[in-house]
């Protein structure tokens, strides 16, 4: 499934992450998953949220630099080797992944957030894997 991910540019200063989460919480926007990639000066906060368009609006209104990006969601068994099996299938079919992160809402399934270089090709591969 293709969804919108929210990416927020953050300066590496104390309190910036809590400010983002408070703004989203006050707007009634739930955060389902997130990851942070950082350097010494700044970071990119990537979020899967309940309302990405509203999240962008409220964060921009608070002077954050924000954008949305399409990503794919894939499910994998939440057991040893489950992710390896999915990644081996993607690799064998020629999918290239720019980045990914994962979360688990229960003991049986993990949800993988994938940003591939070719969205439609990777989606077709994932549909083949699931089918």
UniProtKB/TrEMBL annotation:
Signal peptide from the UniProt entry: none
Matching Pfam families: ACT_8 (PF19571)
Source superkingdom: Bacteria
Residue stretches making up the ACT domain: 1-123
Protein's UniProt name: ACT domain-containing protein
Species, as recorded: Maribellus luteus
């Amino acid at each position: 499934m293709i969804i919108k991910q929210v990416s927020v540019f953050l300066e590496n200063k104390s309190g910036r992450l809590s400010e983002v989460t408070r703004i989203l919480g006050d707007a009634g926007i739930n955060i389902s998953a997130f990851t942070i990639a950082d350097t010494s000066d700044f970071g990119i906060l990537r979020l899967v949220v309940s309302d990405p368009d509203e999240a962008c609006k409220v964060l921009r209104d608070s002077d954050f630099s924000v954008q949305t990006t399409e990503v794919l969601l894939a499910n994998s068994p939440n057991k040893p080797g489950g992710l390896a099996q999915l990644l081996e299938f993607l690799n064998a079919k020629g999918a290239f992944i720019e980045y990914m992160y994962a979360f688990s809402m229960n003991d049986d399934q993990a949800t993988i957030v994938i940003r591939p270089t070719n969205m439609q090709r990777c989606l077709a591969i994932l549909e083949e894997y699931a089918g």
